Automatic annotation (TrEMBL):
It comes from the Eukaryota. Residues 2-115 form the CWH43-like N-terminal domain. Keywords: Membrane, Transmembrane, Transmembrane helix. The chain crosses the membrane at residues 6-23, 35-63. This is CWH43-like N-terminal domain-containing protein. It is found in: Endomembrane system. GO terms for cellular component: endomembrane system. The keyword Chloroplast does not apply. It is a multi-pass membrane protein. InterPro entries: CWH43_N, DRAM/TMEM150_Autophagy_Mod. It comes from Caenorhabditis japonica. The lineage of its organism: Eukaryota, Metazoa, Ecdysozoa, Nematoda, Chromadorea.
Length: 147
């Protein structure tokens, strides 16, 4: 549960920061609809994370009231009586919901990255005299797109 908390909790913090930055640059860089979209999925994701934590801790607490000497089951199942199983299911569903909301949040960056273009040029650090290839051989290789 600690890895899930760090992963989803860290990304929720990223979403909050990104949502704030989107709010600050909205009239100049992007549209208000993008900000509201990101805000909605940030709020939904944070609430889903909160539900996952609360119901996960509640499930473990209820389980340990009945079986104080046993570790929390990994994975939970219905093979034997496990009190708190229903709360664990709610926690797992909330965790997956949080992940889905975070994916939808990331999709909002698509239109902003469509306008970015990258150009690069390759240049050999050796000239033809140093490489042992004559100029005519080099021209022939370039026309064949080998160099």
């Amino acid at each position: 549960m600690s890895a899930a908390f760090m992963t989803f909790g860290g990304f929720c913090l990223y979403m909050i920061c990104q949502c704030y930055l989107t709010f600050k640059v909205t009239p100049h860089v992007t549209k208000w609809s993008v900000f509201y979209y990101r805000l909605a999925f940030t709020i939904l994701s944070c609430f889903s994370l909160l539900f996952a934590i609360v119901f996960g801790v509640t499930a473990a607490h209820i389980y340990h009231q009945t079986y104080p000497d046993l570790p929390t089951p990994r994975p939970w199942s219905r093979r034997f009586y496990q009190p708190g199983y229903e709360f664990h299911q709610i926690s797992a569903i909330s965790e997956w919901t949080c992940a889905i909301f975070q994916i939808f949040f990331m999709q909002s960056f698509g239109p902003e990255f469509e306008e970015i273009s990258v150009q690069f040029f390759l240049q050999s650090k050796y000239n033809s005299a140093e490489s042992g290839i004559s100029d005519s051989e080099r021209d022939e290789l370039e026309t064949q797109h080998i160099i």
